[in-house]
């Protein structure tokens, strides 16, 4: 009795593909809650495509190019402007791959671009979808993967904001279904039953009904109280002050004014602070502080000055030589405060019945009413200049010029406490000694945190006690902490080598929400986005933002002016700046900066930022998907018309040994596909007579006799195929008529 192919297009294979898709879907869906990944539907469609191509058993080479085309087309509409597959498109892709190769070689995983991470996720889904089908339909072993999936969802449901109640129910149904049907297939193989649809229905229908009934009863039945306390509320109790705490106690993350004692753990708080409508993402400043005490930050005394009609004519963060773009953003506050959140380069604030006071030391802007009382705005607009920093200007900055000609300025922004341990200064000198320019020195310090064993951590974070220094403890003892640890340590290291720097606090970009009709984008900023970073002073340039915290990326760009003028693409410096995008054909489309590849959905103060953050244009995506699905359906339902000619192209011109042994089974498969199923126990000669009777010919009998001489007598396959090729071609063409 001939054994059938273990992977045929039948009801069982279709059901297993559906189950496998649902199983992998449960690995993807939590990403929107536990990371900053947006537009998950793209990856869901890609996963669906992989399973569809697998079920249709498309030629591997064709399947490869379909996967590749889908992946790069969506990479194009997510990250690139201009024409698909244009010269600038290939140039940008090549530069991005080259950049990420250097990043991987340096093991600086958090510095990988969003586009490269998206490519890796596409490839991972491609591989895993193949492995799932292999394990279900060939190895017939899926219990372990089902257990892993349930464990994965249970852990995320317990320790993250993801709600996995529905996922667990779906997994129980799908998991038991897969395990049951796979056991049936193993049983059929053991008993030698290869084609029996009655057994599939006789086993499958009761199994599905039993699983659905059990899941329904289990879901609706009353639940016993938990034996162990939920760890998440337990941790939250620390944040509310109900637990014993450590050091300063566990705090909820968010903006606070008192930074005199830094350190200690915190718990996330996803309460929305505000929504921002804008065209280009950046950090939101609240204030700066300049006095490092050894335990935290304080600020110099200053005065409050009025900003007449909201126009900022008091402070400038960059010189006139810096190229900028004039932009506008609108903030809608969910939590109101009597201060302004504003971007670097603020020019004007617009709101009704509000007056503004700037503290000239901290640069914090407070809002008051006509009587001078604190006023909490619900909505306001900020106009600002978005800078572009040229590396030539940064490298050419001459120490001692500009603001640095003022001794008070130098003393203020290079201040360090006398109690600072000598080894902090020695480390700063060691890091920067081999670099000639300030730009190179600052980049070396920023890279130091990424290239060493520093860990982003929010719970197990120490608090300096006694004479311990906050920076010294982080650099040499714990080497783990969150943004305050990284940013404060970078400022201290820079000041130790006489580079003016200061500590800035506010919020990161937030999480992408939607695109408006005005081609602007809406981002939602929560308390989790509270953040601190570093600003370094460059003579004749101004204050420049740096981001040392692991998992976060600088929202501002460093580019070579010469490369930009000559080629329209960014050069690469020692800090491996990301390649610039191809020129856009649509100037009205919101610009996506290279810095937004990883942070367009916002870096979170509690999770270290997300790997995949982007927006996507719906029209081309929808047209591509509809066109692809339409083409796929036409090819699928018309496969009996064109597959015979694929076989003819594949085998007709070949004359080597073994071709007959492949071409004859291909003919049998095609005959089965058009409805001429070979019955159980039916010999090849009996089946050939049935085919000849159906088509009123004798060709199948002659062809089968030639094939049996090769199969059983060992005659030359090459000679028999040469005699049989025309018979084979005539028969396989009949199947397409």
Radius of gyration: 33 Å
Helical proportion, percent range:
40-55%
Q: How many DSSP H or I helices?
A: 24
Q: Stretches where pLDDT falls below 50 for ≥5 residues? A: 1-6, 233-249, 567-616
Q: Give me the secondary-structure category.
A: alpha+beta
What's the β-strand tally? 20
Number of domains: 3
What is the 3D shape? elongated
Name the average pLDDT. 78
Measured between the Cα atoms of the first and last residue, the distance is: 31 Å
Strand content: 5-15%
Largest sheet: 7 strands, mixed
Element layout with pairings:
Layout (H helix, E strand, L loop, with lengths): L10 H18 L2 H4 L6 H16 L3 H20 L7 H19 L8 H26 L3 H17 L5 H27 L5 H24 L10 H9 L11 E2 L13 E2 L4 E7 L5 E6 L1 E2 L4 E2 L5 E4 L15 E11 L12 E5 L4 E5 L5 E4 L10 E12 H5 L11 H7 L8 H11 L5 H13 L4 E2 L13 H9 L1 E2 L1 H14 L4 E7 L3 E5 L5 E6 L3 E9 L3 E5 L11 E2 L1 H7 L28 H4 L18 H20 L1 H13 L7 H15 L10 H12 L3 H15 L3 H18 L3
Parallel strand pairs: 1-2, 12-20, 13-14
Antiparallel strand pairs: 3-8, 3-17, 4-15, 5-6, 7-10, 8-12, 9-12, 10-11, 15-18, 16-17, 18-19
Helix pairs in contact: 1-3, 1-6, 1-7, 1-8, 3-4, 3-6, 4-6, 7-8, 8-9, 13-16, 14-16, 15-16, 20-21, 21-24, 22-23, 23-24
């Amino acid at each position: 009795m001939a054994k059938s192919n273990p992977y045929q297009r039948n009801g069982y294979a279709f059901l297993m593909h559906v189950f496998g898709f649902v199983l992998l879907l449960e690995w993807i869906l939590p990403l929107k809650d536990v990371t900053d990944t947006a537009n998950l539907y793209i990856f869901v469609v890609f996963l669906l495509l992989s399973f569809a191509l697998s079920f249709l058993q498309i030629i591997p080479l064709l399947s490869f190019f379909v996967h590749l085309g889908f992946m790069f087309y969506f990479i194009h509409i997510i990250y690139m402007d201009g024409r698909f597959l244009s010269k600038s498109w290939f140039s940008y892709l090549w530069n991005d791959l080259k950049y990420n190769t250097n990043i991987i070689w340096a093991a600086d995983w958090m510095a990988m671009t969003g586009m490269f991470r998206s490519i890796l996720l596409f490839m991972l889904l491609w591989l895993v979808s193949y492995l799932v089908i292999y394990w279900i339909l060939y190895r017939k072993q899926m219990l372990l993967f089902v257990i892993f999936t349930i464990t994965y969802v249970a852990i995320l449901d317990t320790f993250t904001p993801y709600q996995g109640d529905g996922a667990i129910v779906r997994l129980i149904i799908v998991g038991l279904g897969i395990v049951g049907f796979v056991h049936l297939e193993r049983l059929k193989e053991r008993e030698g039953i290869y084609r029996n649809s009655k057994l599939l229905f006789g086993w499958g229908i009761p199994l599905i009904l039993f699983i659905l009934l059990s899941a329904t009863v289990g879901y609706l039945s009353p639940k016993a109280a938990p034996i162990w306390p939920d760890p998440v509320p337990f941790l939250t109790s620390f944040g509310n002050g109900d637990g014993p705490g450590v050091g300063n106690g566990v705090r909820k993350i968010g903006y606070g004014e008192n930074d005199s004692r830094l350190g200690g753990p915190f718990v996330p708080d996803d309460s929305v602070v505000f929504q921002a409508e804008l065209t280009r993402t950046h950090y939101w400043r609240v204030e700066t502080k300049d006095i490092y005490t050894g335990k935290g930050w304080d600020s110099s005394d200053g005065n409050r000055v009025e900003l007449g009609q909201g126009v900022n004519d008091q402070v400038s963060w960059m010189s006139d030589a810096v190229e900028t773009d004039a932009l506008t953003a609108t903030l809608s506050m969910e939590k109101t405060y009597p201060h302004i959140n504003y971007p670097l380069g603020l020019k004007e604030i617009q709101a009704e019945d509000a007056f503004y006071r700037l503290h000239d030391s901290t640069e914090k802007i407070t809002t008051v009413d006509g009587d001078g009382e604190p006023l909490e705005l619900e909505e306001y607009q900020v106009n600002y200049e978005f800078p572009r920093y040229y590396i030539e200007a940064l490298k050419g900055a001459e120490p001692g010029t500009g603001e640095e000609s003022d001794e008070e300025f130098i003393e203020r922004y290079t201040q360090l406490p006398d109690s600072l341990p000598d080894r902090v200064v020695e480390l700063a000198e060691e890091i920067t000694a081999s670099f000639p320019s300030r730009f190179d020195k600052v980049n070396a310090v920023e890279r130091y945190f990424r290239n060493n064993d520093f860990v982003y951590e929010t719970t197990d974070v120490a608090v300096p006690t006694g004479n311990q220094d906050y920076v010294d403890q982080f650099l040499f003892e714990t080497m783990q902490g969150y943004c305050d640890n990284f940013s404060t340590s970078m400022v201290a290291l820079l000041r130790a080598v006489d580079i003016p720097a200061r500590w800035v606090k506010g919020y990161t970009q937030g999480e992408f929400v939607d695109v408006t009709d005005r081609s602007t984008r809406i981002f939602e900023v929560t308390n989790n986005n509270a953040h601190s970073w570093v600003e370094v002073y460059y003579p004749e340039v101004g204050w420049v933002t740096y981001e040392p915290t692991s998992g976060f990326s600088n929202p501002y760009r460093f580019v070579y002016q010469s490369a930009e003028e000559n080629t329209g693409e960014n050069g690469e410096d020692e800090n491996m700046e990301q390649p610039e995008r191809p020129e856009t054909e649509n100037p009205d489309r919101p610009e996506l900066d290279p810095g937004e590849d990883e942070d367009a959905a916002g870096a979170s103060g509690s999770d270290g930022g997300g790997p995949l953050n982007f927006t996507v244009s719906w029209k081309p995506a929808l047209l591509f998907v509809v066109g692809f699905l339409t083409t796929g359906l036409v090819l699928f339902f018309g496969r009996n018309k064109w597959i015979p000619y694929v076989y003819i192209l594949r085998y007709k011109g070949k004359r080597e040994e073994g071709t007959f042994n492949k071409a004859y089974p291909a003919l049998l498969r095609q005959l089965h596909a058009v409805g001429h199923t070979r019955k159980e126990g039916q010999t090849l000669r009996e089946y050939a007579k049935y085919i000849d009777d159906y088509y009123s010919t004798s060709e199948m009998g002659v062809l089968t006799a030639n094939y049996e001489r090769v199969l059983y007598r060992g005659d030359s396959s090459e000679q028999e195929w040469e005699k049989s090729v025309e018979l084979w071609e005539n028969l396989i063409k009949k199947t397409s008529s």
